[in-house]
């Protein structure tokens, strides 16, 4: 994991990248707080790739070995170059290296067809660029998994911000939908109706199982059951869940819901990526259907459904005298796993003996 420098992308740079199709040189501001476009760079008289690189080479060689980032138009897309010479001052090398991920994240990494890390002036040429692209250099052809991730990134970038394009769902056009802007698929009508009734009838041990239909690009209701006891929950889920990943909502206690995400070991890589990418935003969206008296306070994630810890959903009487309330036994499966049961205490292991 790379260390982040804390430097942010300036609004000027963000606007220029979105609205300008010419070559852009990016540098760190003099006070080392923002990434800004280098306005002293003069665009070449011709838009040909060779002219662009001749101008770049001439300009950067005068500042060498100062690191810079470069965005170059290439055919119908763009190329991103992180140019950090080996002979650059150590402080500058560390600063630019630790800021690259922030820059790509803000501009939208998937908006660049190729991304390179170059260190020598000789690499700043049209011939070298064509060579590394043709040889499937650093960028290389995308694997199937990388294509899936790129497709998800393209869908999840926010429209109108520096993160690229984002489509908004028709089911999330209300003012309260700001927390749901990352959901990738619409809900079908039947599932939408069930979501809207979550708050009004939250004491029927309801179980909703729903899945993503990639063919229609919809999240569809698979099954609905009521009066599902805790002891029969796993059986109900197994009987009504397809072979791949599944989302579920269960009314485990009066006015309380849990979200369950299961991803069996035999699931395809594509399904795993899509379901994982949608999960957190889907949970946030579900909470917009509830109110102060009805909550979704648990999020359980398992592989195979028989791994589901039902103890997470048990409720016990509150020990506080006179409270008369019931509280969940736990809110985290990891916390439950690490907490000793039945009041057992474990001694701290002894250190190595002294010689």
TrEMBL record:
<dbReference type="GO" id="GO:0005884">
    <property type="term" value="C:actin filament"/>
</dbReference>
<keyword id="KW-0206">Cytoskeleton</keyword>
<keyword id="KW-0677">Repeat</keyword>
<protein>
    <submittedName>
        <fullName>Twf1 protein</fullName>
    </submittedName>
</protein>
<comment type="subunit">
    <text>Interacts with G-actin; ADP-actin form.</text>
</comment>
<dbReference type="InterPro" id="IPR002108">
    <property type="entry name" value="ADF-H"/>
</dbReference>
<feature type="domain" description="ADF-H">
    <location>
        <begin position="182"/>
        <end position="318"/>
    </location>
</feature>
<feature type="region of interest" description="Disordered">
    <location>
        <begin position="313"/>
        <end position="355"/>
    </location>
</feature>
<dbReference type="GO" id="GO:0051016">
    <property type="term" value="P:barbed-end actin filament capping"/>
</dbReference>
<dbReference type="InterPro" id="IPR028458">
    <property type="entry name" value="Twinfilin"/>
</dbReference>
<dbReference type="GO" id="GO:0003785">
    <property type="term" value="F:actin monomer binding"/>
</dbReference>
<dbReference type="GO" id="GO:0051015">
    <property type="term" value="F:actin filament binding"/>
</dbReference>
<comment type="similarity">
    <text>Belongs to the actin-binding proteins ADF family. Twinfilin subfamily.</text>
</comment>
<dbReference type="Pfam" id="PF00241">
    <property type="entry name" value="Cofilin_ADF"/>
</dbReference>
<keyword id="KW-0963">Cytoplasm</keyword>
<dbReference type="InterPro" id="IPR029006">
    <property type="entry name" value="ADF-H/Gelsolin-like_dom_sf"/>
</dbReference>
<keyword id="KW-0009">Actin-binding</keyword>
<dbReference type="GO" id="GO:0030042">
    <property type="term" value="P:actin filament depolymerization"/>
</dbReference>
<feature type="compositionally biased region" description="Low complexity">
    <location>
        <begin position="321"/>
        <end position="343"/>
    </location>
</feature>
<dbReference type="GO" id="GO:0005737">
    <property type="term" value="C:cytoplasm"/>
</dbReference>
<feature type="domain" description="ADF-H">
    <location>
        <begin position="1"/>
        <end position="134"/>
    </location>
</feature>
């Amino acid at each position: 994991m790379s260390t982040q420098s804390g430097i942010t992308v300036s609004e000027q740079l963000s606007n220029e990248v979105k609205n300008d199709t010419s070559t852009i040189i990016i540098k760190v501001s003099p006070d080392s707080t923002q990434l800004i476009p280098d306005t002293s760079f003069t665009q070449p008289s011709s838009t040909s790739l060779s002219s662009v690189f001749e101008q770049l080479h001439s300009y950067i060689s005068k500042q060498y070995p100062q690191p810079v980032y470069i965005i170059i138009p290439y055919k119908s897309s763009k190329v991103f170059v992180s140019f950090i010479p080996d002979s650059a001052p150590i402080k500058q090398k560390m600063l630019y290296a630790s800021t690259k991920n922030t820059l790509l994240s803000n501009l939208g990494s998937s908006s660049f067809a190729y991304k390179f890390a170059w260190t020598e002036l000789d690499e700043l040429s049209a011939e070298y660029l064509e060579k590394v692209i043709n040889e499937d250099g650093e960028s290389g052809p995308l694997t199937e998994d990388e294509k899936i991730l790129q497709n998800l990134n393209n869908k999840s970038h926010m429209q109108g911000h520096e993160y690229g394009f984002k489509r908004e769902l028709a089911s999330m056009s209300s003012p309260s939908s700001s927390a749901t802007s990352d959901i990738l698929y619409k809900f079908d009508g039947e599932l939408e109706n069930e979501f809207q009734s979550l708050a009004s009838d939250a004491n029927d041990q309801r179980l909703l199982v729903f899945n993503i239909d990639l063919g229609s690009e919809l999240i569809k209701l698979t099954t609905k059951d009521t009066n599902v006891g805790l002891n029969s929950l796993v059986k109900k889920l197994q009987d009504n869940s397809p072979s791949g990943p599944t989302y579920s909502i269960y009314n485990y206690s009066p006015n309380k819901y849990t979200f369950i995400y299961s991803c069996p070991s035999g699931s395809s890589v594509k399904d795993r990526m899509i379901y994982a990418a949608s999960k957190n935003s889907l949970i946030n969206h579900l909470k917009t259907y509830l109110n102060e008296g009805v909550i979704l306070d648990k999020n359980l994630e398992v592989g195979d459904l028989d791994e589901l810890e039902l103890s997470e959903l048990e409720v016990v009487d509150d020990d506080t005298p006179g409270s008369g309330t019931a509280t969940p036994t736990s809110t985290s499966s990891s916390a439950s796993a690490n907490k000793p049961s039945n009041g057992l205490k474990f001694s701290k292991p002894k250190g190595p003996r002294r010689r």
